[in-house]
Amino acid sequence: MQFSRHLVISLLLGVSVHTSSAQQPKILVFSKTEGGYRHTSIEAGKIMFINTAKQYGIAADTTEDATWFTPAKLSQYKTLVFLSTRGNVLDSTQQLALMDYIHTGGGFVGIHAATTTEYEWPWYNRLAGAWFDGHPEPQQALYRVTDKNFPATNHLPDTFRHYDEVYNFKSVQDSLHYLITVEENSYSGGKMGSPHPVCWYREFEGGRSFYIGLGHFEKDYEDPFFLSIVWKGIQWAMQLK
């Protein structure tokens, strides 16, 4: 993929990039991180969203500026994508704006480290569905598709192997609909037993929430298999499917 120098510099600086027209539904890709490890794949993910969105009839803006979280600004988006966010990224006013957004029918899509976010805010745990609880070294594992009646997984094989960082989770919400699980006997370091979910969805307080735990590597954001799951999940969260 070829990208303009202006686009790459804007993304690296965390500047919101506006690529939409008035006719297209829009998503906001939010990738702010606070403290600890920051995924190098974030930049690849932002570039992918901006360049790929139009293929789905969608426009994508990106930002790492949490002041974007106001009712007025969020209201222009059909879904918010938390792309490997980390830490306490929203203040109390911004948290209220996110809650209002979901309560008025907005969508939420969490990718990979989105579950390492806002550990001190229980409502976010309910929105995202779980919190991160460590991981072994990246390795190949066997994944099982547990629900093929959902747009993001209805095109997938029953099982597949994938090399990634396999997250363990805690505070897993009871009302999640699991879409993909990982077989812990196919890799080392799993500690959740069976089932061990890695992708799920739920209707939540007036909005929709979708999460996928895969997506650690930059190469994932050029992988048609992974991206098909992400984009179909986004379309569902946007209530386009």
From TrEMBL:
Pfam families: ThuA. InterPro entries: Class_I_gatase-like, ThuA-like. PANTHER family: GALACTOSE-BINDING DOMAIN-LIKE SUPERFAMILY PROTEIN, SECRETED GLYCOSYL HYDROLASE. It comes from the Bacteria. It comes from Chitinophaga chungangae. Residues 26-237 form the ThuA-like domain. This is ThuA domain-containing protein.
